[in-house]
């Protein structure tokens, strides 16, 4: 018995130690499993719990106009998503969300039932909606920051700037062309997290990193763009036209100051418009230039000294047969000088000048002016037009191309080519991006005017300008394009559209245009206006010229070109003491001076504001000098004294305290 | 011994300080971001209000202003 009990004791010890050994092996095994086999996975898990990753949404650069006005801005907004696994009451959640966000409830319910951990409910919602949803404290509904693109000026320059899709991808215009530069990089900020999920900043913060996005400044001038768009829109509406385009350019540098297309669209809601409204027509649409082209025929003919402005041509009384075709003029003419051919826009006259030029020479100039190739303005979707090599010209092509038929161009090509006439013969490369800056505002890349080639001599350019000036004088086709107080050089154009169904020219569908520059002698602005299929009238001088006039009239003062007859007065500040200058210096030219020598009595201006005072003595032919601001406190000559045209009148203003 | 205890207490205190400051920094960063966002949003609002189409509408329809005729313009230099 005793041996047995000892035996039992031993057994117990052995059993226990075996058990302990087994436990130890088990622990060792588990340790091996955790520390060696599952190491990677567990480390990851720990990191996930202890660290929080805050995705920093990539920023997208701003697009500015040349004056620093924002045209496209990105702002962070919330997007709401659902973790369908955590949603408790599908029915209620769907109802509440659908009513706040005004989305389809059935579709939302489907998403919530799907059981997927991530489903967008609605992207890019307003902060008011966020507040409302947050108040409901719905389980499984959370928010994520995303960038949303805003176009604060709505339709302003929309065709040029373009727009971005939901995922911050540029889809049109500048947004598309410079997408890579504008978009920043995706970044994640890693921070430690405590048991409650609060972040603790340790190590590197996100502030040291850069986003590498770029801002883009355009050459567009917001006021001129606005004027151009408004007037073009009015014109298109007035004539019930299918569309229209206008481009304003600085002839000396090739900077595009405004570029408008009609119909317009609002890039904030681009999806609500038909895709054809998104097209930048001035760039992509090709059309036959019609009589507009005679300006370049004139330049070529004068440069080659084929004709002189005073040479006469017989215009066949309005009907001229070339091979199998008959060329018509809208009015019957007999003999016309070359200058009159341009002024009255005679097709037959132009044909005869073209015949004198010959195919190859004409073609050389057409190419030199940049027709038939892209201007490389730096925007997507540019058309190159259609210019055939003379080898393929039909027998009448030389005649028809001379007045702009049988050749297709884009509006930007016309504007660029006309600029070369305006600036003395240099074809400038047009451009829309002035500079690219980084997030700190430092200039990364800036664009300078680029000369493509010299097309015509300065002498020729001056003579063509004189011809184009005649067009806008009394009796010319472009009479209606001249704003009062300015001189305009320009050319009208009316072209029949090619009928794609019947193959010939359409009888009732036209393109009416006017292109020109002002002031004629020192051009500041080249402008082209094209109206597509106007109803009621078709002539460029009737349809497009008034739009040209309206734009010029408002745009030129912005460029500091004032109409003749504007009263300019000098504002001498109080700080500058009135000089007793012997023989008052002539003020800036353009002071309004009355026509007749008249004696007038000086009115009492005391107590009047500057505006009222000036309008009182305006038109009396006085040279006005002003000092200070506020109300009139002193005047020379005294009230009641007789003054003469050309007398100097001093007005002293002081603001009432 | 006393020195050792004092030293370790100081160490613990300094660690706590680091963590506390960490919290402060992260909340300050959050605030900075929120303020930046708000600033950007306000800038956007300014830009929207400065839209010429809007200004023109207010000027013409509400304030009954009109474009001056060329002869009504006096330029002061």
Structure report:
The complex is a heterodimer of chains A (657) and B (77). Chain A folds into four domains: 2-52; 70-152, Penicillin-binding protein 2a (Domain 2); 223-558, Beta-lactamase (3-Layer(aba) Sandwich); 570-654, 2-Layer Sandwich (Trypsin Inhibitor V, Chain A). Chain A is built from 19 helices and 27 strands. In chain A, strands 2, 3, 4, 5, 8, 16 and 17 form a seven-stranded mixed sheet that branches. With 77 residues, chain B is mainly alpha-helical. Chain B has one domain (2-67). Chain B starts with a helix and ends with a strand. The chains are: A alpha+beta (657), B mainly alpha (77). Chains A and B meet through β3, β7, α9, α18 and β22 of A and α1, α2 and β1 of B. β22 of chain A pairs parallel with β1 (74-76) of chain B.
The structural domain count of chain B equals 1
CATH topology of the largest domain in chain A, by name, is Beta-lactamase
What is the number of strand segments of chain B? 1
Query: Which descriptor suits the 3D outline of chain B?
Result: rod-shaped
Number of β-strand runs of chain A? 27
- Total helical segments of chain A: 19
Cα radius of gyration of chain B in angstroms: 30 Å
Poorly predicted regions of chain A are 574-598
Measured by DSSP, the beta-strand proportion of chain A falls in 15-25%
CATH class of the largest domain in chain A: Alpha Beta
Largest sheet of chain B: none
Q: Please give the radius of gyration of chain A in angstroms.
A: 37 Å
| Residue share in β-strands of chain B | under 5%
The domain tally of chain A reads 4
Average predicted local confidence, pLDDT of chain A: 84
Shape of chain A: elongated
CATH architecture of the largest domain in chain A: 3-Layer(aba) Sandwich
Oligomeric category? heterodimer
Counting helices, strands and paired strands, the structural category of chain A is: alpha+beta
Q: Strand pairing plus helix content of chain B: what structural class?
A: mainly alpha
